[in-house]
Write a structure and sequence with these properties.
It is a single chain. This protein is about 35% helix and about 35% strand. It is α+β, with helices and mostly antiparallel strands. The protein is built from 5 helices and 8 strands; from the N terminus they run ααββαββαβαβββ. The longest helix is centred in the N-terminal third of the chain and has 31 residues. The termini are far apart. The protein is elongated, with a radius of gyration of 44 Å.
């Protein structure tokens, strides 16, 4: 009897111990499979340096210049007439411009080289002072219409640069006091060849600067991954300030001189 009781107590103790061990095991297992702590990816990326093309290469600029002699002159001239009516001003301007065109043709200027720049009809007004002792009921001065001004301006391409002065004189003589000269500029009819030469110089200049910077920094220069160009040809301009060219005077001296075609490039090279 006593042995049986001991056997029952031993079995109960064994079951109790197995339950405790199972509880501990299950608790440990559930802890081991729990997901680890997740770090916010944004908090990490904000601390990492950001690299782009402008911070990983050598950026330089280069310039190329070619000096040329202009072979084309561009003359800006026209006529300006005033009359009490629009019709009257237009008639005077048309007659003067026709004479100018005939003179240009006589100097070898073709129609394709004569282009209307602008045509304008503008009212002419004058301010009238009021005699307040006579008309005291008028509070202020006023303006009245006295006529109209017609302006007809053209641009002329002169392919014989040496004849520029003679052409200006001929046009001024034909148009008389109604002629207005805005100015003359000198350019190159086909600057593409000179622009290519200037660009080659600019690229060589930029590459030399990049190579020098790489040498100073102790790195090897890689291939260019960016290039842009700006600049170009800027004509020489001589202004006559709407002057009136008088007929019968000494021939107008015109000298084209030299001009420059300048191009600038910006380049970026990789670092090897």
């Amino acid at each position: 009897m006593k042995n049986g009781l001991l056997l029952v107590v031993g079995l109960l103790v064994g079951v109790s111990l197995l339950g405790t061990i199972g509880y501990v095991s299950s608790t440990s297992a559930s802890a081991s499979v729990s997901p680890p702590y997740e770090t916010n990816p944004q908090s990490l990326s904000s601390e990492q340096p950001v690299y782009n093309s402008q911070s990983t290469g050598i950026w330089v600029s280069g310039q190329g210049t070619v000096t040329v002699i202009p072979d084309v002159a561009v003359l800006s001239l026209g006529v300006e007439a005033e009359a009490s009516t629009v019709e009257g001003a237009m008639d005077e301007a048309a007659v003067a411009m026709d004479r100018v065109i005939v003179a240009l043709h006589s100097k070898g200027i073709a129609d394709k080289d004569i282009k209307t720049q602008w045509f304008n009809i503008y009212p002419i007004r004058e301010w009238i002072d009021i005699d307040y002792s006579v008309r005291s009921w008028i509070d202020d001065d006023y303006e009245i219409l006295v006529g109209y001004r017609v302006t007809n301006m053209v641009t002329i391409k002169i392919r014989d640069v040496e004849a520029t002065g003679q052409i200006i004189d001929a046009a001024a003589k034909a148009g008389g006091d109604l002629v207005r000269i805005h100015g003359v500029s000198f350019t190159v009819d086909d600057p593409s060849t000179y622009e290519s030469e200037a660009m080659a110089q600019a690229i060589a200049d930029a590459r030399a600067k990049a190579q020098q910077l790489a040498s100073f920094a102790g790195v090897h220069l890689g291939n260019p991954f960016y290039i842009s160009e700006s600049g170009g040809f800027f004509p020489i301009y001589q202004d006559y300030g709407m002057g009136i060219m008088e007929a019968g005077r000494v021939p107008t001296p015109i000298s084209p001189g030299e001009t420059e075609i300048t191009l600038t490039v910006q380049m970026a090279f990789a670092i090897q």
